[in-house]
Automatic annotation (TrEMBL):
Keywords: Methyltransferase, RNA-binding, S-adenosyl-L-methionine, Transferase. The active site is at 399 (nucleophile). Pfam families: Methyltr_RsmB-F. The keyword Magnesium does not apply. InterPro entries: MeTrfase_RsmB-F_NOP2_cat, MeTrfase_RsmB-F_NOP2_dom, RCMT, SAM-dependent_MTases_sf. This is tRNA/rRNA cytosine-C5-methylase RsmB. It comes from the Bacteria. SUPFAM superfamilies: S-adenosyl-L-methionine-dependent methyltransferases. The gene is rsmB. Belongs to the class I-like SAM-binding methyltransferase superfamily. RsmB/NOP family. S-adenosyl-L-methionine binds at residues 302, 346.
Length: 457
C-alpha cells in the first residue's frame, strides 16, 4: 500500500483571496465560496469536530445563504474530504493557487453542476502550469479508475494511487484482499443513498404516499420494509409519511442488525447501547410485524440522557408502546440480570464503516480510533451478557470494519466464558452462511457493519 500524508488544514489564504481581482459576479461568488469553504475545512481539522456539525452550526449562524449557496458550500466541503488523499498532494508556486486547484479538481471529480463557479476556480487554479492540463474533463467518470485518470490528466500528479483515498492506518487495521481493494475505495468515495424503513404501513403504501409527495423512492430487494430515498436532500419535517411515524431513516447496513436479531412478537429485549434508538425502533417494528398485538417490550440504555430523550420522541411519533429507557449510571447493570430473551450490544467503535457518509472522519482520526476501543467493547459485552436469560440471544454489533473491534472481541469474550455459543447467520446480501458477519459498503450500496449472534447455553 502507498503512504498517504495526513490531512492538514489549509494554510490560510484569506487575505490573498481577497486581493484576487474579480471581474464578474460569478467570480466574486466563487471567491466568496472559496474563503468560506477554506474556513470551514480548517475549523473541522483544528477542532476535530464532525464536518456536518460544523457546517450545520455555520448555516444556523449565517442565514443569508440561499439554497444554492448552501449546496455549493456543503458539497464542496464534503468533496474535499472525500478526495483529500489526492488533493492533499497538489502543489503550486503560490499557496492560494493550491486552494483553487483543490477546489477545481474536486469539482471535476464530483461533477458539480455550478459551472460558473467552477470555471472561476479553474481560471485562478492556473492549470496552464501543469503540462498535462488539457484533460480537465473526460466522459463517464463513474468508476474510480476513471476518476484517477481524470485527476492525473488534470493535475499531472502521476504518483497518485487509488489506495491513497483512505489513510494508511485503515489498510493496516481493516485488511482487504487485493481483489476487493478497488471496490472498497470506490464505495468509500461515493455517496450512499438515504435508506429508510417503513413502520406500521406497508412498503407499497409508503412508496405511493412518497410518490404523491414528489419523492422518488424504491423498495429494497433485501428487506421487505427497507426503501431507498435516493441521493437528493429531503426536508423530512415536510414529509407526512415521516411526521406520522411511518418512516424512519436507517442505513441498510444498520437494518441488517435488527434482521439478525429477529425478535419474536412477545419477547423481552434490551438495547444496551441504544443511542437515539434507531435499532430500538426497528426491533419494536419487527415485533409488531409478527403480531400487531405484540406484548413484547424493549428497554433502551445509554450513558447519555439526550439521545434517550430523542428516542422517546421518535417512539411517540411512531406510536410505539412497550419501549422504555434506563440510563447507565454506573458499572452496575441498569436492568435486571438473567431477564431478557435478547440483548443487543451495538458497541462504541471507530465508525470506519460510516466513512461514506462522514468522509472527514478518515482524516480526523488516527489508528488510535481502532486500537483504543477493544478493551472497552469487551467490557461492555461482558457486562451486558449478564442480562441474557438461559437460552436467550446476545447480539454484538459495531459499525467498524476492523477485526480487532469485531471478531477479536467476540473471540475474547467466548474465550473467557463457556456459557455462550455462536449461532450461524446468513449474509443477507450474498446468502452465505457464516459465524460472524461483516457488511462491506460495496455489497449493497450501504454503510459498513459487523454483527455476531450468540446464544446462552
Amino acid at each position: 500500500m502507498s503512504q498517504t500524508r495526513s490531512a492538514q488544514p489549509f494554510t490560510s489564504v484569506f487575505n490573498e483571496t481577497l486581493n484576487i481581482e474579480a471581474s464578474t459576479p460569478a467570480q466574486k461568488r466563487a471567491l466568496s465560496y472559496a474563503t468560506t469553504i477554506e474556513m470551514l475545512f480548517n475549523q473541522v481539522m483544528s477542532s476535530k469536530m464532525p464536518a456536518d456539525r460544523i457546517i450545520g452550526q455555520y448555516f444556523r449562524e449565517h442565514k443569508k445563504h440561499g439554497s444554492k449557496d448552501r449546496r455549493v458550500i456543503r458539497e464542496s466541503l464534503f468533496g474535499l474530504f472525500r478526495w483529500w488523499g489526492w488533493l492533499s498532494q497538489l502543489q503550486a508556486s503560490q499557496q492560494h493557487v493550491i486552494l483553487f486547484r483543490q477546489l477545481s479538481a474536486c469539482a471535476a471529480l464530483e461533477q458539480h453542476t455550478w459551472h460558473d463557479v467552477t470555471q472561476a476556480w479553474d481560471d485562478i487554479a492556473a492549470w496552464e502550469e501543469v503540462s498535462n492540463s488539457q484533460a480537465n474533463t473526460i466522459p463517464n467518470t463513474e468508476s474510480i479508475n476513471d476518476k484517477l485518470t481524470l485527476f492525473i490528466g488534470l493535475t499531472g500528479m502521476t504518483q497518485c494511487k487509488i489506495s491513497d483515498l483512505l489513510p494508511q492506518w485503515f489498510w493496516q487495521t481493516c485488511p482487504v484482499t487485493a481483489a476487493e481493494e478497488i471496490a472498497v475505495v470506490e464505495a468509500m468515495s461515493s455517496r450512499p443513498p438515504i435508506w429508510a424503513r417503513t413502520q406500521s404501513i406497508s412498503t407499497q403504501q409508503a412508496l405511493v404516499t412518497l410518490s404523491n409527495a414528489g419523492i422518488e423512492a424504491t423498495a429494497s430487494e433485501f428487506f421487505a420494509d427497507a426503501i431507498s430515498l435516493g441521493h437528493k436532500s429531503i426536508n423530512l419535517n415536510e414529509v407526512d409519511t415521516y411526521k406520522l411515524g411511518h418512516l424512519e431513516i436507517q442505513d441498510l447496513a444498520s437494518q441488517v442488525i435488527g434482521q439478525i436479531c429477529q425478535p419474536q412478537a412477545d419477547e423481552q429485549w434490551w438495547d444496551a447501547c441504544s443511542g437515539a434508538g434507531g435499532k430500538t425502533l426497528q426491533l419494536r417494528s419487527l415485533m409488531l410485524q409478527k403480531n400487531p398485538n405484540s406484548r413484547g417490550s424493549i428497554i433502551a440504555s445509554d450513558i447519555r440522557n439526550k439521545p434517550l430523550e430523542e428516542l422517546n420522541k421518535r417512539a411517540k411519533r411512531a406510536g410505539f408502546n412497550h419501549i422504555s429507557v434506563s440510563t447507565w449510571k454506573s458499572d452496575a447493570l441498569p436492568v435486571k440480570a438473567n431477564a431478557f430473551d435478547g440483548v443487543l450490544v451495538d458497541a462504541p467503535c471507530s465508525c470506519t464503516g460510516t466513512w461514506r457518509r462522514n468522509p472527514d472522519m478518515r482524516w480526523l482520526d488516527d489508528v488510535s480510533a481502532v486500537s483504543d476501543k477493544p478493551v472497552l467493547q469487551l467490557d461492555i459485552l461482558t457486562r451486558s451478557a449478564a442480562a441474557v436469560k438461559s437460552g436467550g440471544q446476545l447480539v454484538y454489533a459495531t459499525c467498524s470494519l476492523s477485526p480487532s473491534e469485531n471478531e477479536h472481541v467476540v473471540e475474547a469474550f467466548l474465550a473467557q466464558t463457556n456459557e455462550f455459543e455462536l449461532i450461524q447467520v446468513t449474509h443477507p446480501f450474498t446468502g452465505e452462511s457464516c459465524k460472524m458477519l461483516t457488511i462491506w459498503p460495496q455489497l449493497a450500496d450501504s454503510d459498513g457493519m459487523f454483527v455476531a449472534k450468540m446464544r446462552r447455553r
